[in-house]
Amino acid sequence: MNRPKGLQKEEIFLLSRILRIVDTYDVMFYGRPYKPKLSQEEVFNKLETGSGSKMILILVRDL
């Protein structure tokens, strides 16, 4: 995964992390020509299990 300036987890700006969650949600929920869409429940389950950090999990749960 590409990270700005090699930053890790909490070093990445909060807004950037929020935008990543929103973009990921959009891809999974609305689908793409190469990727089928998922139900909202499936999307939230994937976001929670793949969050990778406590802060991201908190952001995901607050959606």
UniProtKB/TrEMBL annotation:
<protein>
    <recommendedName>
        <fullName>HD-GYP domain-containing protein</fullName>
    </recommendedName>
</protein>
<dbReference type="Pfam" id="PF13487">
    <property type="entry name" value="HD_5"/>
</dbReference>
<dbReference type="InterPro" id="IPR052020">
    <property type="entry name" value="Cyclic_di-GMP/3'3'-cGAMP_PDE"/>
</dbReference>
<dbReference type="InterPro" id="IPR037522">
    <property type="entry name" value="HD_GYP_dom"/>
</dbReference>
<feature type="domain" description="HD-GYP">
    <location>
        <begin position="1"/>
        <end position="63"/>
    </location>
</feature>
